[in-house]
Amino acid sequence: MPTNPDPAVLDNPDPAPDVTPDPVPVVPEKFSWKSQLEPDYVNSPTMKIFPDTKEGFNSAVKSHLELQKMMGHEKVPIPKGPNDTAALEVFKRAFRIPEKPEGYGLADIEVPDSMKEMTFDKKMFSEVMHKQNLTPEQAKNLWQNYTEMSKQAYADVLKKYQDDMAQVVTQMRSEWGDAYDAKVGVGQMVINKFSENQEMNDFISASLVKDPRGIKFLAKIGEQFAENKIGDFKYQRHSLTPDEAQREIDSITGDPNHPYNNEKASRAERDRAIDHVNSLYAVKMYKG
Known about the structure:
With 288 residues, the chain is mainly alpha-helical. The protein has a domain at 232-288. It has helices spanning 39-42, 54-70, 85-94, 122-131, 136-176, 180-194, 198-208, 212-226, 242-253, 267-287. Helix 6 (180-194) crosses helix 8 and helix 9 packs antiparallel against helix 10 (267-287).
């Protein structure tokens, strides 16, 4: 058994290991960039826009850099109202608003043959846009949109009219058969005879021919002309009262030389006179 050379130290064949304490967690300090600013800066309305975070700090820096880029650019004041003429002039120059309406240089509009009656007042449109202080780009875009929408609306109306007319023609052809063209022709003859000008002709045609009842009405009159039953409307009267009709009946029947009484009158004159007197009796019957 070995002898311990140092009796003060006990024998310890297994010395205790060294103990290392657990590290104390380090709590990161809260980020606050505004805490480094002067109180006046922190409380300014501009700084209050940005939050006291890393993201807010980056946003503030970005805003400052963008502002620097604008330094040296011409400042354009916002007019306070229509009477702020000085600011309005600067505004117009900055946005290249022309001094006169024709300065917009709006393009001419091409209208297809099917819309030849459609017109666009470019001069008036330019004046309206200039009054509203629109920029050239805004005016040209609005002009294009306006004309395209108008042409489309016209095309839609025209197509509906054509579809309606096709339906009318189909209906009348099924009713009249091969006589359709002839009946429509005599109806158009009536319009051509009594229209003062082409404008009136077009109006009457558009008003009556678009409906089967109008076509029948014109055809009926045309047939009367074709059979020489109307002549020059010698006996036609409009809006007679029953008393007026009776007076005219008395005048005709009391005149021995009138074609109604005179057997020596031609057959055509006598027939027209008889038809006229019959129409007068009809007035009495239906209005009396």
